[in-house]
Amino acid sequence: MKPSRQDVCSRISIALLIAAVCVVWPQRAGAQRQNLDDLLERTSKNVSQFLDEFSDVKCTEYVTQLKLGKNDKVEAKEESTFDYLVILTNAGGQLNLSESRLAVYAGKQPKTLPLLVTNGFATLFLVFHPYYEGSFQFSQQEDDFIAGKRYVRVRFEHIKGTRSPTAVVLRGREYPLELAGTAWIEPGSGMLAKIVAGLDNGLDDLGLRMLRSEVEYAPVPLRDVKQSYWFPTLATIEVETPKQHWRNTHRFTDYKQFSVSTEEVIAKKP
Fold first, then answer.
1. Can you tell me the distance from the alpha carbon of 46 to that of 33, in angstroms, rounded to the nearest whole number?
2. Mean pLDDT, all residues of the chain
3. What range defines the domain where residue 190 resides?
4. Does 266 map to a domain?
5. Does residue 268 fall inside a structural domain?
6. Residues in Cβ contact with 183 at an 8 Å cutoff, skipping those fewer than 6 apart
7. Is 262 within the bounds of a domain?
8. What span, in angstroms and rounded, lies between the C-alpha atoms of 22 and 259?
9. Distance between CA atoms of 85 and 195, rounded to whole angstroms?
């Protein structure tokens, strides 16, 4: 049966619509990818500059360690305070960060208390450092608002077989983590406001069922530094095994520039 004029017009309209989608969508996807690449470039540059500043400051770190039971009931708790300092070394192109903690106050709980030790999560921003740029895949998600301010959300996933900025230490051995998560980035400056990261599938072979970390950042002015960098203010880490559940929080306050001065004294000859 010969198609009516109306049927032909409908088919033409559908064909034109599909053609329009096929032409316009790659342009939008390409523009979005370019915007994401530009944002990641700004963020990477900021992280590199920030790392130089971060390794020159010290702060006060308040740590709360919780051992949780059924219905998240607190079974054990420990609170400690430290003078906190990040030490950066870059020998032979190998980036290495280590944390220095000087105890100001240590809890009085027995050392045999089954609490979890969590270190290094303040430096989760390394996901966006050029040293690890080939270790993650990035994709843009819908924007989100924090305290009424708009941020770009960027999803990241670790590429298996590449270097990782985090690891779990078990019985003296390090196991690199396949981190995945989301970062909230200020669109204009590329500064990080928040990072949520964890393991999508856990590490059942190591008895690790769940790991989730959330780090919040805020601008901190420093003396003689024109730009205000966003420093870690709060890190929350939650870990579950088949039989254990822990939640640790790290609060960072009172950021100050750290400097070491040396004097050379030459003894006079008699």
1. 20
2. 79
3. 34-257
4. no
5. no
6. 127, 128, 153, 154, 156, 192, 194, 195, 196
7. no
8. 58
9. 21
